[in-house]
Every structure is written in structure tokens, then in C-alpha cells.
Amino acid sequence: MDFAVDPADARFRDDLRALLDGTLPDWWRGMFVDDPRAIPFTREFCRALAAREWLTLAWPAEHGGAGASAWTQAVLREEMWAAEEPRGPQYMNLNYIGPLLMRYGTPTQRARFLPPMARGEVIWCQGFSEPDAGSDLASLRTRARLVEDHFLVDGTKIWTSYADAPADWCLLLARSELAADRHDGISVFLVDMTTPGISVRPIDTMAGPHEFNEVTFESVAVPRDCLLGEAGRGWELVAAGLTFERVGIARYARAARVLEHLVTHANESGQSRDPRVRARLAELRASCEAARLLAYRAVSLQARGVVPTVEASIARIHATRLEQEVGHAGLELLGPLGLLRSGDPVAPLAGEVQRHFVRNIPTTVAAGTLEIQKNIVARRGLGLPRET
Amino acid sequence: MDFAVDPADARFRDDLRALLDGTLPDWWRGMFVDDPRAIPFTREFCRALAAREWLTLAWPAEHGGAGASAWTQAVLREEMWAAEEPRGPQYMNLNYIGPLLMRYGTPTQRARFLPPMARGEVIWCQGFSEPDAGSDLASLRTRARLVEDHFLVDGTKIWTSYADAPADWCLLLARSELAADRHDGISVFLVDMTTPGISVRPIDTMAGPHEFNEVTFESVAVPRDCLLGEAGRGWELVAAGLTFERVGIARYARAARVLEHLVTHANESGQSRDPRVRARLAELRASCEAARLLAYRAVSLQARGVVPTVEASIARIHATRLEQEVGHAGLELLGPLGLLRSGDPVAPLAGEVQRHFVRNIPTTVAAGTLEIQKNIVARRGLGLPRET
Amino acid sequence: MDLTWSDEQEMLADAAAAFVRRECPPERVRAIEASDGGHDQPLWDAMAELGWCGLALPVEHGGSGRGVLEVTVLAEQLGRGAVPSPLLDSTALAALPIAWAGSDAQRARLLPALAAGRSIGTLAVLEPGMTDAWGDVSVPGGTRISGQKLLVPWAHVADVLLVASSSGLYLLEAARTAWDSVSHDAFAGEPLFAVTLLDACTEPLGSPERPAGPETTHRVLDTAAVVRLAYAVGAAEACLDLAVRHASQRVQFGRPIGTFQAVAHRCVDMRVEIDACRYLAFQAAWSLEREDRAAPLEVTAALTYARGALRRVFLDAHQVHGASGFSTESDLHLFTRRLTEFEITFASSRRHPDLLATAMGLS
Amino acid sequence: MDLTWSDEQEMLADAAAAFVRRECPPERVRAIEASDGGHDQPLWDAMAELGWCGLALPVEHGGSGRGVLEVTVLAEQLGRGAVPSPLLDSTALAALPIAWAGSDAQRARLLPALAAGRSIGTLAVLEPGMTDAWGDVSVPGGTRISGQKLLVPWAHVADVLLVASSSGLYLLEAARTAWDSVSHDAFAGEPLFAVTLLDACTEPLGSPERPAGPETTHRVLDTAAVVRLAYAVGAAEACLDLAVRHASQRVQFGRPIGTFQAVAHRCVDMRVEIDACRYLAFQAAWSLEREDRAAPLEVTAALTYARGALRRVFLDAHQVHGASGFSTESDLHLFTRRLTEFEITFASSRRHPDLLATAMGLS
Q: How far apart are CA B247 and CA B95, in angstroms?
């Protein structure tokens, strides 16, 4: 057991911060803020990362990556998420769509799809959830029928982020065959979003416009060579992808950053002398520490080649609660003016706390609801019996 | 809507407090404290209440009671529970065993069993739970076979409080016939605890000895006229009894009393000036207020002749959480010395907080676990669908 | 003691519930919020017609002479529909303080129009840097007032503006003087404005010798907080309704999600917290109405309790809804925003627990 | 950075776990607790034989020269079995401070026996009225000490007693002077005593010119708190084991209660909190061992977090168990009592959050 930070990782963190300080525009507030400059900036930022070989830091050398250690990757992910993810939609390419292609793609697919991702030139979205298939993903209804040399896809996907960025490609989940076990018969497709028959309808959210979309597929022709992995075995890919994703976001790093700003605000407003404020912020700091260590436990396993399915869920359950608590404590600290958003000139901390609060109202819902994460831990981690 | 206290009820409360002040011995710490004086004192106290016609305050005049209003009853129950229930085991007679007899008993049964209760001379216990039937009471296995003019009872009951007081009688639940619906075929019996074949084994608990017992029935002969209500319809009696019981205990009144003592301690130890202490005790006080009002909502319905099944469960869910929180906050206030129990000469507040804390570790379990209470509210209160 | 409604209160609540269902369903709420200014004159006129603007105002000035408790009964029903209206603020923040502390002339001049809904009132308290509505204001009072006030509700449609100054409450009338209102960018349930006063003509509320001081401001804020709490309780009830409906209809893993205990018990937790807040609000309103000496304790208890409780309610509602609750296509956000606004503006004050601590005997 | 155990740590943990299972199953814990004095000499001798008494003591005084982190690794396994033993207190409260701050003569005289398990040490801090172990003590120091100390663990079997006085740490040896120990009536996991000192013969820890002061006492308490936290984490893990076992075996409504989401998710919540506390404890131990400047922050973070977290764990365990968990026939109470003791004595100090606040930059 060793809690010392590798000096090379510490230097890398400094370098990253220098890049962020020099690159992030004043107006940057993360995605989904109804600012037309956001998506173009994320493309530019990804290219800047690519130029330093930091974009595909996590990828193995054989796929054009830097093959960085799990710990170096953790530094990258902390700094990115703390800065409200300036890689924008492309973090998904790097964290799990790329890795899925590496693991399940044909040599042709890898040669075709990985290089544009590595250059930071392509936006992917993910077509998993459906109006009637959320946490119960296996009940999805989107169908893919093999007709000669292509699949014809029909169905509706929902909560699809970035589809209107616009996304260039979609990692699509569809049922390609009827099967006895409903987890069988599902396949993963790589779909060109410019294919005729695809329509994208943005769904506004409490955090602002453009966060979600509904994507409808009507007789969309997907070439046969755009099937990823084996037909009918898509569930296995989804499970692998979800594990990649859960460890891919350093939620606690954002919470810790917001907490730093709350400390500054408490000092400046004189509230730092109130023992209640001190105790509350200290409790959150302790919780940030715990969240970081739970994430590092998962990273430690990754570094040893173990897939930390249960450990990643535990870290995620903990971090989502932390994120919400930081938002609430922040609003209580700011008082009534905490209602004001980034667009208001008198908003305290430029509306950052308000944004963090709203964004985290549904944080326990994204990427598998809290309930599903808990079921994973209950069955796989604790060995509790499954409901019949 | 009227939040004013009836002056007569206020006077009654004063009178009750005067009686308690004059009667409760210094050593009184409630039941289950391994003090041989406890049970005899509760008998004496009940006779003192009976002498003032306060014992059967809640009972209708036709059964020898004072027919007091639901609100006067609420005052009695608050003062009793705040004083750690000096009626001891007999509160059960008054709150639900007596009322069940009034509602379901034959004239002979009422004439036989109610007067000793009204005089405060008899201790009853309740034989409901079994080793394999706790929250799922309907799965009970104790059997009662009709043989000529009596039932022969075999089975084991558990968590039976007061059985070793010793109890004179037991309100026993047993399966008297096999039925398609497992809620049918259950009957309620009035069992003389001196009948041969009954053995009582005390089960020690974290709070001390004598709280629980296991009671075994081996071919125990129960005369046919000791069946309460219709054979096989016992489930209806249980449901009625549980509703009587839920509103029968003013848990918040005890929490409020402990909180008063914490305020005194905070003032004396100088901790009252710490804003964290002030805020925490204030939050608990607000929660006591809420608990009292939720109980009063149920009483308001009772006063109008409505059986407040859902409302009583809501009040109970809230109050159990409050009780635990007061215990925890109390221990935090006392600091390390809060570990000390009543028996220790240097225990702060004479170990009262410690006792309250330990007693309330399982508070969410007694009288239908929290889960069961929540199921009642979910189905009957909110109309949520039942699990299939 | 009786925690059930009187027949009169029951009738008021029923009438309000029916009105809200009929006149202000969620589509209308959305339309009003999306409109310029966010104020719906026909809706206002209809409510004025029902006598709700003057519900708690004295009979001699055209009101119905009912009390704060009745306003909370009404508020709960308006909250249940997330009705966007200056009605409650106009009553609690302007009309009632004028009735309590205004001079005879001020009462006679202003109350009839406020009671009839011919004019709208509001109150300006918060200033930059203030973290508590009950805190110390610094704008100096006087017959001419200058300064900036923030988060003033409905300032753009108000005819009467009370201003909390360092020397007490002052009165501005749109008919006599002008103020500048800039809409805030807020995550809120109602239109909020930054108001800039530049040498605005005012008069003290009450007589010039005995103008209404901070104790009146505190009483106003306490009353408004309790009325707003009742509105929030209604909004929370709507969250629970939506959650129960969603849990009963949404099928996952082959059955309605409401059959999963984790979901069902969340709904029960909501039920418990809403009921607790509800009776605390009614008790506080009852005591405020009587100027009972327990009133401050009961107001602080209600607000102290509500702070965390109502937040848990809306978070639970979102958890039950999954992603769909975050979409503005669901009605849930209408209520979440109102609950958040209530929590931040009225319930998060650190003043209340401290006052309650004093009231319960902590030295 | 690596949060997995080294091979050596793994071996220590495995050996400890096997020892606890074999030598100290719940029946033995009950027997020891029920015995006079609650100290089991054969168990102590067996642990001494394994070298655990000297695990973190210097090699030159007969120890193994391992660090505080190794003691926490051992502590977790002992907690998992609720092992009643003065081992951890003797190490953290007496042997380590002597190693840190004792004079050469004191170290040479006392450490070999402590390392070999031939003597037992403890520390007396609390006094009547103190609400925080880290608070100000008032017993005056000197070569003769009089006063009352409370909640002193294992005082009845201790050969070496450190006493926190207003002028620093003082050393008493049973071989030279006597003290009066009266057993407390406590809801606790280990034997605790009220110790009365009457003109007891002492010497300062360290040199008479530079005796160990409050900074040493704080370091001792921090270390003991982290070691005790690891023991509590082990006890919490045992609570979870018992809850999972109960949930898997107990059938109600025709199926194991662990299939009810409400029960299963409670177990998951326990899992999350235990893991969080566990790594916070290890991190703090690692920093303490290195006298890292982050150590105070990490100790306070661990204790601040653990306070509520471990309480939720044992309450959840009881909830899963139903009434049976409250009966002393279940093993659960063995662990609940230890968790409660840890929470009250070490984790509920209001000092920690405040220190953490300062460390994180609050002015």
C-alpha cells in the first residue's frame, strides 16, 4: 500500500493545468450551456491535446496511444472533469467507444474508426436507452433486419447526448434476432449519422437546451461491415462498455473543485468563522477524500489488470451522493443569491454552484441509475440472492 | 383547524405531572433495567392511576372507563411515555388488549377479563412473533387443535415482552385451521400463563435482561371459551390491534423529554454557545414538533371516529427516526463519557442518554418493522401497486 | 386542538383546487412562464374576482377579513399547480404589512386596490452580498432612496413597492415615482428582478414619527416564509403525485417500478416529509395569525425542518422519474424549481435554527 | 500510488484473520467478556508469541520495526473478530509514545517488555466533565500526581500507565507505584476504568527538562484513533457479513429477505461506507507513519467521515436483522458495542472537523 504520488504524474498534472489555464476561455462553462461556441471549442481543445499526444493517452501504443499508466490516466480524468470536461463529447470516444472498437472491432473497423478519434476529429454519440427501456436496457425494441448486404434499422433512442452536436457517428444498440433469453439477440452497430432516415429531436432539460436528444431511425441502412463484434452478442459489449465508462469520469474531482471555490467564498464573505460552515465544508472535504480513495482503489486494480466492476460501482454510488451534497451545501452557503445563474451579472461565483447543483439533480440517474449500480454491488459484490 | 390546547387537558397534564413527580422513585429508569423493584412498582403505579380513574381513562363508560376524549388520552400517553412508561406491561392492556376484548369478546369474556385490567391487577403479554414469522406474521406455525372442549396449543413464540414479569395471561395468535389464503385460519386465544405446558425462557438484549422471552407451548390446553372472536378470523383482530397499538405510544414525547435534558446539559457544560450544538438541537426540536403534529393529525381523525391506519404509520415512521437521532445527537453532545450507563456514578445525565440510545437501536423493528410500516403507506396511502 | 380543516377552509381549498385544475393546468403554467414578463392578466383577474387578493385584508378596506391560516390553505393549492402569480407575494409582502403597520391614510389609500386586485404589491429586501433575507440591509431610508435591491419578485408589474431600509420600511408607489427593474437570470419559480432606486420618492410605512422598523420586516418575512412554505408543500405534493403516477405506469423488468420496494419506500419517505412540513406550516400560520407568543418558535421550527425535508422530496421524485424527470417535457421541473427557490430564499437561513435554539432554552 | 496490500501486508492480514477465526471465535469473545477482568492471558500470550505486541516498535528494543500502517492492517482483522485485547491500546497508547518521546533510559527499560508482551501499557486522559479526548486536561503533572481519570482502557492489567497532565505526559509503573482502578458501567467494547491517583510516584516521559507535551499527547491520540478506526472498520465488516448472511438465509413472504431491494440496498450502503472508512484509515496511517505533513489533515478527514458513516453501518445491520439483532444471542451486539465505543470516544470530537476546515484553507 503506497499513497505517494508518482513525481512524473505530479508533473503531468502541472503541465495539464498549465495547458488548461492557457486554453480555457473565460466563457467556458462546460457543455449544454446554450453557447454556440462550446462544441467548436471542444474540437479545438481535443486537437490541442492530440498535438501533445495527451488525447489518446490511455490507449495502447498499437492503436496510436501513449499507453499511459492507469494512474496517469486518472490524473487526466481528474483534471478534465474538474474543468467541466473541455473534451466535450469526445471523452466518450477515448474512454469507452475507442476501447470497445479495439477489443471487438475487425482490423478494418479499427483502421477506419480509431485514427479520426485519435486526431480529435470525430464526434460519436451513444444510442442505448429507449422510451420504454431505461434501466431495463435488455427490453429495447429497436430492430435491425439483415437485408442483403446491410441491416435496416427501425426504432427510437432517447436521452442521446451530443446527437445534435451534431454527432458524426452513433454507437447503436438494436435487437437483430429474437432470442429466448432477452439478453441474447442484441447487436451493436456503428452508424453514420448522415445516413438517410435518421432524425434528431433535441429535448430540453432543467440544465438548459441540447443536453438530450431523441433519435429516430426509419429504415436506416447500416452496411454489414458496421456491425461491431458478433451479431446477437451485443450485451457483452454493453457490459464491458459500462465498466469502462464508470471508471472514466472523476466526478469527485469536480466536487472538490467546487468545494475549493466555496472555501474562497466563505473566506471572502466572512462565513468561514461560523463553526457550522466550517464543519459542513470539512465534512464535504472528508467525503471528497473518501471518493478519491474509492476511485483510486478501482484504479489500483486496473493497474494490475483486474476489471474493477464492483469497485467502480461502489465509487460511483459514493461520488454521486457527494456531488449532490456539494451542490446543496454550496447553495446554503451562498444564500438567496445562489439562485442566480451564470448569465446574471451579480451571480455569486459566476453561477458555478447553481450550475453544479442543477446538473447534479439527475446525477444519480445517468449511466445506470443508482438502483442498478446498487443491484450490481448487491449481487456481484455481496453475493445476495437475485430477485426471482 | 385549531392548534389551541383545551384548558381541561392542560390541567389534566399538570395533575398527571404532579402525580408523577410525587410517585416516581429516584431509581425509576423504565422497564428492562434488571431492577427487581421495577415490576412491583408498575403494579403499584397502575393501582394509583386506577384510584384516580386515570388508568382506564380511554375506555368507554360501559366498560368501566372514563370515556375521555381522544385528546385527553393523547395527554396521558405523552406523559406516560415521557416518564418511561411507569404503567409497565399494563399499557398494553389499556391500549389494545382491553379494546380488542371490548370489540370482539363475548359478554362473559368481557366481564371476566376487563375488570382486573381496570383495577391494574393483571399483566398480559402478547404471543405474536415466531422464530420464522416476524414481519411475515401470517406464516406463523403455532397450531391450536380443537379436542373436545378445549384447544391444544403447540408452538413457540419469540420476542414476547413481560412473559417473565411474570405475565398472568397471554394474547396468543395460533393457526387453528388450514386455509387456502394464509391469512385465514388464524385465531386469537386468551391463555392463562399458569397452564401446564408453558415454559418461558428470557432472552437477554443489548439493553439488558428480561426484555424479551421465548415462550414455548407444549400441548397447552386452552378452554374453548378462551377463543377471542370467531375461529379462523384472527387476522382481522391483529390488524385492528396493530392500529390501536401504533397510536398508543407517544414516542416523540420521550424524545422531547430527553432533548430537554440535553438542553440543560448543554447550558451547564457551556456547549450551548457552540453554533453547531445550537443548530443540531434546534433541528431535533423542530423534528419533535413535526412528530407531535403527525401524531395529532392521527388523533384528530380518531376524535372524528376515523381509524387512522395510514396516518398512524406515517407518524410512527417519522417518530422512530427522531428517537434514534436524539440518541445519537445526545451521545455526541456528552462526548466520551456518554458511554457510561445509569449504574456508573459519574455517568452524565445519570446515563439517560445512553439508555435512550441503546433502547432505540431496534426501535425501527418493534411493532412491525419500518419496512412493513412503509408497505402499509405505499399501498394503502399512496395506492402503489403490490408486488406480485 | 383539531388538525382537520373547518368546513370553510375545506371549501376554500376545494374551490382553489378546482380553479387551479381548470384555469391553470401545467400547459398554462408553461405558457405563462414562456411569455414576456411571465404575468397572466386574465388569470390574475379571475383570482381577484374570487376575492383571493383580499382574503386576509380587513373588511373595512374591501378584504374578507380572514387570516394568515386561510392564505396558507390557498397557497398550498396554488403550489400544487405551480401557479405563477404575484398573488401570495402581493398579499404577504405588501398588503399585510400595510394593513399591520400603515398609517390610516396609507391603509385607506392602498388597501382597497390591493384587496380588489386592481394593484399589485411587493417588497425589496436583499442586497448584493447578503446571504440571508433576514440579515442587515444597508440601503439608507429617507424620503428619497437610492440603492440596489436584488431578487425582488414581480417588481415589473408592482404598483406598490415596499423597501426595507436601514431605518425601516419605506413605501414607493409606481403612480408617483419610477424604479428600474432588470430581470434576473435565476433558477426560480417566479420572475425575480434587480431593482435600482435612484433618488426615488418614498414615504415611511406608518407615521413619519413611528415608521415600521425591522420588527415589522421580520414579521413580514416570517409570514411570507410560512405562506411560501405552504405553496412549497403543495408543490411537493405534486412531485409525489407525479412520482406515484410514474411508478405505477412505468414498466421495467416486466413490472411497474412502483412494485420495487426501493422505489415504493422512496415515495413513502416523501409522504412522511410532506405531511410533516404541512402541519408545521399550518401551526405556524395559526400562531402568526393570533400573534401568539409561540409564533416565532413555530415559524423557525417549520423553516428549520423544511430545509432538508423538501429537498429530499424533490430529489426522491427525480430519482423515481429517472432521466425523464430532468427533461422539461416532464412537469416535474415546474415543481422542482419552486421547491428550490423556497429552500434557498426562505428555508436556508442560518438564523432560524439559532433562534429556535434560543427559544428552546439554550443559553 | 497503490491501494492494494503489499505481499507482506497481505501475509500479516491473512495470518491475523486465520488466528482470529481459530483462536477467538464469537464464543470465546463472549467468554472473555463474561470473565472476571475480561482479559485472557493465553490469548495475549499467543498474540505476543506472534510478535504482534512489538510489531511497530524499534528493532533495537525487540520490536519488528514495522509501522503504524501494519498496526492498522492487524487492527482491522482483530476488529473483524471483535477480539477483546489490550494489544492495540498497549501499542498505540503506551509503547509507541514511549518509543517516540521516551528518554533512552525509559525506552531501554520499558520497550523490550512491551514488545515481548511481558508488560501491558495504557494511557489515562479523560477527566470528569471533559467532552473531548483531545481537550484540556487539568490534573497537574509532577513527580507526585493526584487526580481522577476516566475511561482508561485496561487499567486493571496495565504495568505501565501514561498520564496526560496539564504539563505533559507522565509515566507510572505498577512495579513502583499503585493506582486505584474501578470498573466503569459502560456500553463498550473493552474494559474501561476510573483511575484515582493519590500522590502517585511518576516521572515525566522524556527528559525532566524536555518532557513530552501536549503535541505528543495529540499525536498519540491521533494514532490511537486511526488504529481504532481500522479496528472499527473490521467490526463494521463483520456487521455486513452478518447482515448479508441473515438476508440470504432468513425467509419471509416466501423468499430470502435479501431479494427485497430495500434490504439489499441497505447492505450496499454499508459496503460503500465501510470501504470509504477503510481507505481513509489506511491513508491516515500511512501518513502518520511517515510523519507526513498531510497526516493531521488525513487523520481529521478519516475521523470526520467515520463518525456518521459507521453509525449508519451498524444501524443498517440492525435493521436488516430485525429483532434478532438486538438479542445478545446474535453476535451482532459484539460489533455494535465496539462501533459505538469508537464513535463516541474518538470520532465524535468536534475538534476534527474544525481542524480539517483550517487545513483546507478556511480562515
A: 9
CATH topology of domain C214-359: Butyryl-CoA Dehydrogenase, subunit A; domain 3 (1.20.140)
The structure's pTM equals 0.94
pLDDT for C19 equals 98
Q: Which of C248, C267, C272 sits opposite B314 (nearest CB)?
A: C272
Domain spans of chain D, in order of start:
7-116, 121-204, 214-359
Q: Mutation test of the interface with chain A: which of C150, C184, C314, C349, choosing the one with the most A Cβ atoms within 10 A? A: C184
Asked if pLDDT for residue A307 goes beyond 80, the answer is yes
For chain B, list the domains and their CATH numbers. Answer: 9-123 (1.10.540.10), 125-234 (2.40.110.10), 250-381 (1.20.140.10)
CA separation for the pair C39, C20 (Å, rounded): 16
* Type of residue found at C253: F
Cα torsion at C301, C306, C312, C315 (round to 10°)? -170
Contact status, residue C260 vs residue D261, Cβ threshold 8 Å: yes
**Residue carrying C-alpha cell 495470518:** D15
Facing A336 at nearest CB: one of C327, C336, C345: C345
Averaged pLDDT, A136-140: 82
Q: What is the distance, to the nearest Å, from the Cα of residue A38 to the centroid of all Cα atoms in its chain?
A: 17
Q: Kindly report the CATH number that applies to the domain delimited by C7-116.
A: 1.10.540.10
Measured between beta carbons, the chain A residues lying within 8 angstroms of D352 are: 282
pLDDT tens digits, C308-358: 999 999 999 998 998 889 999 999 999 999 999 999 999 988 899 999 999
Based on the residue annotation, tell me whether B283 is a catalytic residue of this protein: no
How wide is the angle at C-alpha A299 spanned by C-alphas A295 and A305, nearest 5°? 150
How far apart are alpha carbons D38 and C223 in whole angstroms? Answer: 61
Q: Residue B96 to residues B127, B174, B239, D28: CA-CA distances in angstroms?
A: 14, 18, 11, 43
pLDDT at B367 over 50: no
| Cross-chain CB nearest to A374 (options D9, D268, D360) | D268
Q: Is B143 helix (H, G, I), strand (E, B) or coil?
A: strand
Q: Could you give the residue ranges of the DSSP H alpha helices within chain D?
A: 7-23, 26-34, 41-49, 68-80, 87-89, 96-101, 104-116, 214-249, 261-289, 295-321, 332-342, 351-359
State the virtual CA torsion across A302, A304, A310, A312 in degrees, nearest 10: -20
Nearest to B92 by CA among B193, B225, B242, B216: B242
Quick one: D196 exposed, middle or buried, by C-beta within 10 A (0-12, 13-18, 19+)?
middle
| CB within 8 Å: C315 and A276 | no
Asked if residues A250 and A322 have their Cβ atoms less than 8 Å apart, the reply is: no
A274 vs B contacts (CB less than 8 Å):
275
C-alpha gyration radius of chain D? 20
A 280-299: CB under 8 A from D: 281-283, 285-287, 289-291, 293-294, 296-297, 299
Q: Which amino acid is at D269?
A: D
Please state, in angstroms and rounded to a whole number, the distance separating the CA atoms of residues A19 and A9.
15
CA–CA separation, B381 and C21 (whole Å): 22
Longest dimension (CA), chain B: 73
Q: Helices in A135-186 by DSSP H: which ranges?
A: none
- Kindly list the partner chains of chain B, i.e. chains with 3 or more CB atom pairs below 8 Å: A, C, D
- Residue among C71, C266, C356 with most chain B CBs within 10 A, to mutate: C356
Residue A366: predicted pLDDT: 52
Cα(A330)–Cα(B85) distance, integer angstroms: 44
**Scanning the structure block, which residue is given the C-alpha cell 472508512?**
D277
Alpha carbons C81 and B233: distance in angstroms, whole number: 45
Contact A378/C at CB under 8 A: no
A36 touches chain D (CB under 8 A): no
pLDDT tens, position by position, D50-76: 999 999 999 999 999 999 999 999 999
Cβ count near B125 (within 10 Å)? 26
CATH code of D121-204, in short, is 2.40.110.10
